[in-house]
Design goal:
The protein has 109 residues and is mostly helical. It folds into two domains: 52 residues; 38 residues. The protein has four helices and no strands. Helix 3 runs parallel beside helix 4.
């Protein structure tokens, strides 16, 4: 029976256990030396922090863009409300939208 291709890498490498982690640690120690390891870890931590900040900023921009596209334009709602003879002063977008819908339903009836 043939082994499906997507599972082949799992069979070749398996999981990383304690001996493998120790071996990697020894290799890093031999390659970089004791003085460079703290500096290397510090720069790795900074890079990870910068990546997290960039991700949060990107998510915030995406959410702001979604909110902007979902929210009706307040100025357009005010103009539409004034055209229907409604008072638009001091009302937010939701209140204006409901008032416009009610006025349009009343005019259609």
């Amino acid at each position: 029976m043939a082994i499906p291709t997507p599972h082949l890498p799992l069979l070749l490498f398996g999981t990383i256990g304690t001996p493998e982690i120790i071996l990697i640690g020894v290799a890093v120690f031999l390659l970089f030396g004791a003085k460079k390891i703290p500096e290397l870890m510090r720069s790795l931590g900074r890079a990870q922090g910068e990546f997290a900040n960039a991700r949060k900023q990107f998510e915030a921009e995406v959410k702001a863009g979604e909110k902007k596209t979902k929210e009706p334009d307040l100025d357009a709602l005010r103009k539409k409300a004034e055209a229907l003879g409604l008072d638009a002063d001091g009302k937010d977008a939701d209140e204006l939208q409901r008032a416009i819908e009610a006025a349009e339903a009343k005019a259609a009836a």
